[in-house]
Amino acid sequence: MSDTSVFDELPGDLMVWVLIVSELLVFGAGLAAFLAVRITDPAGFATAQDALYRTWAGVNTVVLITSGALAAFALRQSECARRGMARLALLGAALLGVVFLIIKSVEYAAKAGAGIAWDTHPFFTFYYLLTGFHAAHVVAGVVVLTLVAWQDAPRNIEAGAAFWHMVDLVWVLLFPVIYLLR
Amino acid sequence: MKYETQKIALAYFSVALALFLIQIIGGLLVGWVYVSPNFLSELVPFSTLRMLHTNSLIVWLLLGFFGAAYFLIPEEAEREIHSPKLAYLQLIILVVGTLGVVVTYLFNLFEGHWLLGKEGREFIEQPVWVKIGIVVAALIFLYNVSMTVLQGRKTAISNILLLGLWGLALLFLFAFYNPDNLAVDKQYWWYIVHLWVEGVWELIMASILAYLMLKLTGVDREVVEKWLYVIVAAALFSGILGTGHHYYWIGTPGYWQWIGSVFSSLEVIPFFAMMAFAFVMVWKGRRDHPNKAALLWSLGCATLAFFGAGVWGFLHTLHGVNYYTHGTQITAAHGHLAFYGAYVCLNIAIFTYALPILRGRDPYNQVLNMAAFWLMSGGMVFMTFTLTFAGTVQTHMQRVLGEYYMNVQDQIAIFYWMRFGAGVVVFIGVVLLIYSLAVPRREIISAEPSVAAE
User: Fold this and answer.
1) What's the DSSP call for residue A182?
2) Of the candidates B193, B240, B454, which has an alpha carbon nearest to the alpha carbon of residue B338?
3) Among positive and negative, which fits the CA dihedral B185, B187, B190, B195?
4) Which residues of chain B neighbour A18 with C-beta distances below 8 Å?
5) Is B261 on the interface with A (CB under 8 A)?
6) Among candidates B300, B188, B195, which has minimal Cα distance to B252?
7) Domain positions in chain A
8) What is the pLDDT of residue A3?
9) Model confidence over B405-431: pLDDT tens digits?
10) Are the beta carbons of A15 and B233 separated by less than 8 Å?
């Protein structure tokens, strides 16, 4: 048999890509279900959406993308053997992940304060499920970025950054569909 | 056979096959009750017969897994099993426990007794003393195989197998937690039932299948391991939260409907991957292994698991569909082909591979064994179709038109007759299979000195 396959051309570890594809399938299915249920009640979904803080979600988007850029920068630095710079960038990326989580918690707290729960409206079921699952991945991402800042072989950083970019990408899909789409 | 202690597997496989026969006879009896409802109703009620049918299945599959572990771990770890004595003690405990369950249920002994009486929770009906025995046996087993692997060569196959077996044993501990609240009871109950067959058992299945592919096709271990990791990752990723597809209507919060639907839909992926893996390995493989029957069972396992567990599972896993089909014959159709494809075929594949080696009887006549494969698989597939049609009609009449359960049962009797016919075919297949595995066939197929199978 041939010992080379297209999988060998992937940057980073194959298993990270298996994880990334699986995550995209889950969030993709979740978003598709959200849009399908939205068809049954467009007015209700629009009203519910108005309860969200679009501005802070926009700020969070900038926070997360900046964090992603720092992770990519860290990999570049690490490949050029600038370990200190790479570690600093990774910790910066992780810190921005924490900032994202803080803004997210403020948002959740405000929803809870307004008496909005997961079963208030189908919109909020998806809102909590999708952004909640995403936030859990941000928590995992912060841990991963910290871990690869500690065990900072370029190969590790590549895997961590790939995971973190997936978390970015999912947010970039969630943000317009949940917060902005009218 | 390279290692003397691989012989332990022979005892496990023998008991497993005997229980398999009992399971199928139980299935025939239950199938007959469906067409003639008063059959045996005074002597052994349907609920007990059904319990024997499903529980003997679980126990013989487990004995098969244990036997498979005792067979393949010495080769993978390149050393003898840590303690053969403990392995046999473990088997004795399991056999005594199994007999204890059967006797307790048939004669309803010690009714209501906390330790000795039956517990009546589907699949974990065992009296508490048997549950304790199962845990002791599992601990002995885990100690024995873990010591063997720790002291020997560590491979992906044995690591994944051990991970699956440890998970299996730890999850069983939820059998001891029996909350009064029925919804909470069911919630934990699925930690065993679901996380076994759609979680850790898949790890066991993938690792045994990987071992068989390694031996039968001669593909490099590196390639097999890469597939194995991907399959295991996909199985755990989808299977753990896939538990949610049991939480639609038992009183758990409604968000489980979406979590269950999304994740359990992905459960088809590891089964597809296992099927792709098996066929790609055969195509790429260079080895022309003489044990064609083992290869047939391996490929049949991967294929029927994909259809039974994957496709038939997806059929009714979305909560919008399950709202109508829940607990109809659709579930029975899925249950039968999933268990047959994934775990029965897997066990028979490893039996078919290992028994000729364990009994030192190469070359062997495999025509009977292969005929049994086609009889059993044909019967099971036909049964799945009849139950699927029965379930479709039942869903419409009962859940859409709102007719009474028993009236609908009368209307779908024809399917139960066909199912019984399919069951008879399976039974004949099982008898042939056991004969072909257990009774030596010493015919010399080729006059040339044969090469012993690995």
Assistant:
1) -
2) B193
3) negative
4) 230, 233-234
5) yes
6) B188
7) 54-180
8) 53
9) 999 999 999 999 999 999 999 999 999
10) yes
Contacts of A118 in chain B (CB under 8 A): 253, 255
d(CA B308, CA B295): 19
User: B253–A19: do the CB atoms touch at under 8 Å?
Assistant: no
Chain B CB within 8 Å of residue A69 CB: no
Question: ipTM surpassing 0.90, yes or no?
Answer: yes
Q: Is the pLDDT of residue B444 over 70?
A: no
Asked if residue A1 has pLDDT above 50, the reply is no
Cα–Cα distance between B173 and B187 in angstroms, integer?
A: 14
Query: What residues of A are in contact with residue B318 (Cβ under 8 Å)?
Result: none
CA-wise closest residue to B339 among B301, B370, B385, B373: B301
- Domain spanning A54-180, CATH class: mainly alpha
Task: Show the tokens assigned to A76.
Answer: 């570049």
Of residues A1, A30, A119, nearest to B254 (C-beta): A119
Tens of pLDDT, residues B390-400: 999 999 999 99
**What torsion, rounded to 10 degrees, do the Cα atoms A137, A138, A143, A145 define?**
110
Residue closest to B215 by CA, chosen among B112, B399, B40, B354: B354
Q: Would you say residue B217 has pLDDT above 90?
A: yes
**Chain B residues with CB inside 8 Å of A33's CB?**
258, 261-262
Which residue matches tokens 């049609």?
A: B389
Inter-chain touch B284–A129, beta carbons under 8 Å: no
Cβ of B219 within 8 Å of Cβ of A25? The answer is no
Is B250 within 8 Å of B225 (Cβ atoms)? no
Angle ∠(B248,A104,A161) on CA atoms, nearest 5:
90
Do residue A15 and residue B284 have CB atoms under 8 angstroms apart? no
Would an 8 Å CB–CB cutoff place A140 in contact with chain B?
A: no
CA distances from residue B87 to A6, B61, B444 in whole angstroms, order as listed = 45, 17, 35
pTM of the model: 0.94
